[in-house]
Amino acid sequence: xxxxxxxxxxxxxxxxxxxxxxxxxxxxxxxxxxxxxxxxxxxxxxxxxxxxxxxxxxxxxxxxxxxxxxxxxxxxxxxxxxxxxxxxxxxxxxxxxxxxxxxxxxxxxxxxxxxxxxxxxxxxxxxxxxxxxxxxxxxxxxxxxxxxxxxxxxxxxxxxxxxxxxxxxxxxxxxxxxxxxxxxxxxxxxxxxxxxxxxxxxxxxxxxxxxxxxxxxxxxxxxxxxxxxxxxxxxxxxxxxxxxxxxx
Amino acid sequence: xxxxxxxxxxxxxxxxxxxxxxxxxxxxxxxxxxxxxxxxxxxxxxxxxxxxxxxxxxxxxxxxxxxxxxxxxxxxxxxxxxxxxxxxxxxxxxxxxxxxxxxxxxxxxxxxxxxxxxxxxxxxxxxxxxxxxxxxxxxxxxxxxxxxxxxxxxxxxxxxxxxxxxxxxxxxxxxxxxxxxxxxxxxxxxxxxxxxxxxxxxxxxxxxxxxxxxxxxxxxxxxxxxxxxxxxxxxxxxxxxxxxxxxx
Amino acid sequence: xxxxxxxxxxxxxxxxxxxxxxxxxxxxxxxxxxxxxxxxxxxxxxxxxxxxxxxxxxxxxxxxxxxxxxxxxxxxxxxxxxxxxxxxxxxxxxxxxxxxxxxxxxxxxxxxxxxxxxxxxxxxxxxxxxxxxxxxxxxxxxxxxxxxxxxxxxxxxxxxxxxxxxxxxxxxxxxxxxxxxxxxxxxxxxxxxxxxxxxxxxxxxxxxxxxxxxxxxxxxxxxxx
Amino acid sequence: xxxxxxxxxxxxxxxxxxxxxxxxxxxxxxxxxxxxxxxxxxxxxxxxxxxxxxxxxxxxxxxxxxxxxxxxxxxxxxxxxxxxxxxxxxxxxxxxxxxxxxxxxxxxxxxxxxxxxxxxxxxxxxxxxxxxxxxxxxxxxxxxxxxxxxxxxxxxxxxxxxxxxxxxxxxxxxxxxxxxxxxxxxxxxxxxxxxxxxxxxxxxxxxxxxxxxxxxxxxxxxxxx
Lengths: 248, 248, 225, 225
Prior knowledge:
- The complex is a heterotetramer, with two copies of chain A (248 residues) and two copies of chain C (225 residues).
- Chain A has seven helices and eleven strands.
- Chain A has 248 residues and is an alpha/beta fold.
- Chain A has one domain (14-129, 162-232): Glutaconate Coenzyme A-transferase, CATH 3.40.1080.10.
- In chain A, strands 1, 2, 3, 4, 8, 9, 10 and 11 form an eight-stranded mixed β-sheet that branches. A three-stranded antiparallel β-sheet of chain A has the order 5-7-6.
- In chain A, α2 (46-55) packs parallel to α3.
- In chain A, 60% of the residues are buried.
- Chain C is α/β, with parallel strands linked by helices.
- Chain C has a single domain, classed as Glutaconate Coenzyme A-transferase (3-Layer(aba) Sandwich).
- Chain C has four helices and 13 strands.
- Chain C has helices at 7-16, 87-95, 132-138, 199-204, and strands at residues 23-26, 45-48, 52-56, 77-84, 101-104, 108-110, 115-116, 141-145, 157-158, 171-175, 179-184, 187-193, 210-218.
- In chain C, the strands form two sheets. Chain C has a ten-stranded mixed β-sheet with strand order 4-3-2-1-5-8-10-11-12-13. In chain C, strands 7-6-9 form a three-stranded mixed β-sheet, with no helix packed on it.
- In chain C, β11 and β12 form a beta hairpin.
- Chain C is globular, with a radius of gyration of 17 Å.
- Chains in contact: A-B, A-C, A-D, B-C, B-D.
C-alpha cells in the first residue's frame, strides 16, 4: 500500500499462457493451501494435480468438494503423502478408498464443511467479505464451538472465508487475458475458487484468441486468473475408473 | 413449512409471460419495498415504473443505485409522491433534480449505502445470508451506530441483507421459464435484485423460445424470476434527457 | 391393496405432491427415483446442487457425458430452458429459499421436524455431509422419503433424534411405506395410511405420538415395476 | 519547465506509474482522463464499477450506446478480451483486492493516508457516495490525483481530515500539480517536485510534515494540449 515502486506488480504483461503444466504449477511451496475445483469427476484439474505431484510440494492443505476418486488426481496426491489436511464437504465418495484409508489410519486431517458453506466461504474469500452468517449447521454438531446469532428471529452460524495460496482449476476455453468459460456441470467450484487464491492456475481444453469469447458469455473474467495452460485432451477420471482408459 | 396443501404454490405453471406492463405490476401494494435495477440510464425498467405510477401504489420504499434522472422512470415515481424512502448509493446525479428537491424539502427519506455494500446486501438477501462483515465504511460516518469487528487484524462493519417485496428489472432476452440475459452495462443490479424479491418482474426487449438461450449463457436463471413482459422498444432515458425523444 | 408400499410406490406417492411449476431438488438415493413418477402433464424444474438447473432424464446408453452429472454423480441430461451455474450461485438458490421442495432420505425424523440423515455417529465412520444441511435449512419445504422403520424394526420417526442432526425443525411431510405424515405445530398428523393398518398399528411402529387427520385417506399406489 | 502541472499533465504523470498488465479503476472526474495518457505500449485493463471490465476509448460521434457506459455514465467502448458482470460481482473484484490500482480525486488526504472525497459535510448537501468507499478500501493501491491546494489556497494534504472520511489509511501516492508524494509509515515522502519549488515552498502549501526522498527527482511533464 505504501510504495510506489511498480516493478513488482503481480501481472507484468497480460499474457497468462504458460507452455505446459510443469510451468503452470511452478512455485507451489511446502505448506501451501490449494483450492482444487471439481465435483465428482466433473471439473477436476487432473493434469495440474499430477504436475503438482511431480513438482513435489508437501504438507499441503487441500480445499475441494470431494477427496479424490480411485487413484488419480487428488486421490493420487493424497496417496503420495503430500496432503496434511483436506477441507471438503463429501470425502466419502464411492471410489474414495485412498482418503478413507488415510483418515482411518490417522494420517490426514479433515475439516468437514457443508457444500453450500464451502462454496460461500470460498466466494467470501474472493469477494473481500470478512465473515458471514449462514443458517446452515445451526443445531448440528458442525456448529460446535461456532458463534450463533439470532437475526430477525432466525439463528445463524458465523463462518469465515477460505482463501488459498493457489487455485488449480479446470475450465473449457480461455483467452490470453484469462477469461474463462466452463462446460456444463464441470463449472461447479471453478469460478469461486478462481476468485479466492493468490495465484489462480487454470487448465483449459483450448486457448482461443482474445475477443473470441463473447463478453456477455465470460463466466470468470481474466482478472481472477493468473496462469492458463492448454490440456487439449484431459484424462477422464471416470473412464479410468470404469476401465475404459488407463491412468497416465 | 408445516402444510402439505399444495394448491397455493408460488408457481402453478412455468409460463411467466404476462401480456402487458399493467398485468406485470399487478398486486404491488401500498408500503411495498421495491428493487429497481439500473445504473445511470442503463438497465432502468422505465416502462414498468410508469405502469407502477399508473397502478397507484403509495408509501413505497425504493432500492436503486441512483434516485432518478430528469422526469422519467424513477424520477417520475418520486415526482408523483409515491415514494417514502430511497435506499441508494448515489442520489446526486447530474439530472437528479426531482430527488434533490424532495430531499431538501424533507419530503423523502434517504438511506445512503455504498454501492458495493448495496449490491452485496441485495445478494445476501437473495442468497439466504443473515448478515456479513465488510471493510467498506470502517472509520467513516456511514459506519455510525454499526457493529465493528476485527477479523485477522482488519476492521469490518456488520451489514444486513436487503430484500424487497417486488423487483422491477430490465433485461434483454427471456424465455417463458424466465431465464434472462442482459445487455452490456445494463446488467448491473439486475441479477442480484432478481434473487432478492418475493416477486421478480422483468421487462425484456424480446421473449424467445425455451431453449433458445444457451444454458451456458444464462445470466439469471428462471428460478429467480416470476413475471416477464416484452417491451420491444423501451424508452431511452438519455434520449429524452438530450432532447432526442419525447417522454411517454 | 394393503401391503406396505414398495420403494417405487413411495417415490410415486411423493411425485404426486410435487405441483406444476415447482423447483425441486432430489437428494441422493431413493429421492432420485421420484423424478421417474412425475405425472406427465407436470412441468417441474429439477435442481442439482452441483450447478445443474433443469436436470432431464438419464442419457441413452453410450451418450453419457461425465461433465453433465447429477449431485449423485450419475450422467443426466439438460432440458430446454435449463441453465448451468457455479456452486456459490447454486447454493444461493438453496439457502435463499428459491427451491420449492427438497426430497431427502432420513435416518430419523423427530416430532418437531428435526432431520438426521448424514451420519450415524459411529466413531470410525468417515464423516461426509455434502449439500444435505444446506438443502434441509434452505428449501421451502422438505419432504422425507423413507421406510417407516429400520431393517431391524426400530422406528425412524422419533420423539428426539439420537443420530447427529442435519437440521432443526425443517421437515414438512414424511412419506413412508406405511403412511404420509405431516409435521405440524400440533404434532405428527397422519394424512394417509395403508389400508391394512389402523392408527394404533402405525403408532406401535412410530416413536412419537401420532394423530389422525380428520380428512385422512387410504394410502394407495398403483402397481409399479 | 517549472510551472505547476496542468490537469492533463497531472493525468499524464499518474499514467506513467500504471504498469503493464494492471487492472485499474479510474474514479469520476479528473481520474477519467488518466486513460488518455497511458503509454501506447502498455496493456492495461480498465474496470468500471457498474460491471464493465475492459473499458475502451470513447465511441465515435453518433456511435454512443447508453447501455455501454462508464461509472461516470459516459458512453464508452469495450476492448477485445473485455467482459460484462453484474454489480455484486463487480464489487467482489473491488472489495476482494483484485483491482491493482484505483485513481481517485480528493478533497483531503491525511498524513496517514486517510481519504476524504465524497462529502464536504455541508448541512444542506445531498449525500452521495457511489462506489468511492468500496474502491478506497478494496483496491491494492489508491492513487490520489488532485490539485495541491484548494482554489482558496488551503492545503488539501493535511494532518487530519476535517471532511467526512471515505476510508482510513488507504492512500498510497498523491499526485498533485506540484509534487508526487508517497504516504509511508514514516510519513509523507516527496518523490518528485516541480523545479520552481523547493521543499520549504512545498511545505508551506501542505498541512502535514513532508520529507524529501533521498532519490527525489524533478517533476516534469511534456507539454500537453
